[in-house]
Amino acid sequence: MAENSERFITAFNRIDKAMDGELQSSKGIGFSKAVRILTRYNAIVRRYKDDLLEFAELRNAIVHNRLDTIQVIAEPHDSVVESIEKIEKEFTQPRLVIPIFERRVHIFQSNKALSELLHVIREKGYSKFPIYDAQEFKGLVTGSGITKWLSMNKETSIRDVLIEEILPYEKETNHQFIDKDTSVYTAVELFKDEISKGNRMDALLITDNGEADGKLLGMITAWDIMSIE
Asked: How many structural domains does the chain have?
């Protein structure tokens, strides 16, 4: 078997096996049908649905099954092979939000002075801060929320304002928590889904268990999402 066709079939079979595994199908239900089913809840398959269905047709065009043997009748182009191998890697070794977005997130206690937070904005350029009361998550303070507070409290001196006073000016939907094993494409879809609903989501907060009480491991912003290919 020629190199390109061998590489194509190897990648195709690995994707097929991985999909059967996710569907817990020991006998296999067919490549195209598996793609259509997994499209409903697998972000990676959903992202590459059209490519995968084309690969299924191409597989039938380049090989001919005869008496349990594979006879190559056409050779796929280099770009096609590279594409299916890339998708195979994405599916079998998906990129996860951790370690890609693992970082020390600057957090604040709710009883700290707003002036301290503003100092960090000025010095570091950060604009999104998870707020806690001891170990309990209270909300996400953003530049937008601070601006709203300022517009409603023009006569108030910032010197005596606590961070917790900003939280009522933030939307509770400005963030979501996700598990450390979430794929980067699922993260992308979470942002897109909120946009399609007319909502603004400022950040995805990554914890070890996907809950507010979990250990905070990283944060993803809309700007970060733009860097995902």
From this structure: 2
